[in-house]
Amino acid sequence: MADPQWRPSTRAPLLWAVNAALMWIPVFVAQLVWAVVDGTATSWPHVGVFAASVVAALAHVAVVPQWRYRVHRWEISEDAVYTRTGWFTQERRIAPISRVQTVDTERGPIDRMLGLATVTVTTASSAGAVKITALDNAVADRTVADLTRIAGRNLGDAT
């Protein structure tokens, strides 16, 4: 079977980088509080933990989003929704159109700033919903319309 052909938006790495950076803020705030309370900000434990945090944060913000972008793919056909996700552990999902129950669009605050959306295809599956992340708004809207049209023609019962 061939891999799904479509990538997320070219702005997806920026979205993932911003989300990663926001995740590191509490870590650095906690280190700052620790240094102030301890009163020895330049001691080796503080400097070592800070240096390790900077290296990990830079990798998470600069490398991981690019890696994820190279892996993430999606595609819809008349028969199924296909996704490939992950950056370290990769997952491929195939959801038959006959199993589609709902199609939702989600746009968080950062998504809206970047003009992006996530399409969630809920199926009658114990594996959970299939998510197509970081799509341009127009692509997400078109994908939802296409999935709704295709699923409406299908005679399956989505159970």
UniProtKB/TrEMBL annotation:
It holds the Pfam family bPH_2. Keywords: Membrane, Transmembrane, Transmembrane helix. Residues 69-142 form the YdbS-like PH domain. The keyword Cell inner membrane does not apply. The chain crosses the membrane at residues 12-37, 43-64. The keyword Transmembrane applies. It comes from the Bacteria. InterPro entries: YdbS-like_PH. This is PH domain-containing protein. It comes from Rhodococcus kronopolitis. The lineage of its organism: Bacteria, Bacillati, Actinomycetota, Actinomycetes, Mycobacteriales.
